[in-house]
Amino acid sequence: MKSYQKNLIIFGLIFILAYTVFRFTYAWYTTPSACQKCHEIEPYYISWQKSAHKNTDCRDCHETRGAFHRLDSMLRGIRDVSIKIKGDYGLFTNSIYHDSNCIACHIGNYKPESKAPFMPKSHAKIIKNGVGCNNCHRDTGHKNGLGVDAKFEILSP
């Protein structure tokens, strides 16, 4: 066997091993209770447990769709863990949500949340005009801005 074939086989085995480890750690660390262990989200986690979306996984709203959605989510998670370790929190260290995820659930295209109520037809025009879901449904899933008011009080003269 030629050396480049051996190298290709070794690379393939390393890739398969790394991918397997990645998938297992991704599945293990991406549950709502696991998210709260590394992210400073306890108030959001508590309010999520009381919301209509309590049976919706964090990833259903906060993860992109597409070929590299797991990798994107994992890299953002690693960034957030490094922020926690360094204690380098900014005022607006916030999470990303995706309107496309809201829309997919509420038009019935996203199967994990098949019991979601259908979006009213009037929303199509609003969405086409570029208005995001969060503009009107700010506290959906869990209350947004928890603790921000106290931080702004410090800034008041």
Describe, in plain words, how this protein is organized in 3D.
The chain is mostly helical and 157 residues long. Helices cover 58% and strands 0% of the residues. It has nine helices and no strands. The protein has helices spanning 3-29, 32-38, 42-49, 58-62, 69-86, 99-106, 123-128, 133-136, 148-155. The radius of gyration is 20 Å and the shape is globular. The protein starts with a helix and ends with a helix. The model has no long low-confidence stretch (mean pLDDT 78).
Give average pLDDT, whole number: 78
* Shape by Cα distribution: globular
The helix-and-strand class reads: mainly alpha
What profile does the largest beta sheet have? none
Can you give the helix content as a percent range?
55-70%
Report how far the terminal alpha carbons are from each other: 76 Å
Which band does the percent of strand residues land in? under 5%
Q: For the CA atoms, what is the radius of gyration?
A: 20 Å
How many helices does DSSP assign?
9
Could you spell the SSE succession in H and E letters?
A: HHHHHHHHH
Q: Ranges with pLDDT <50 over ≥5 residues? A: none
Number of strands: 0
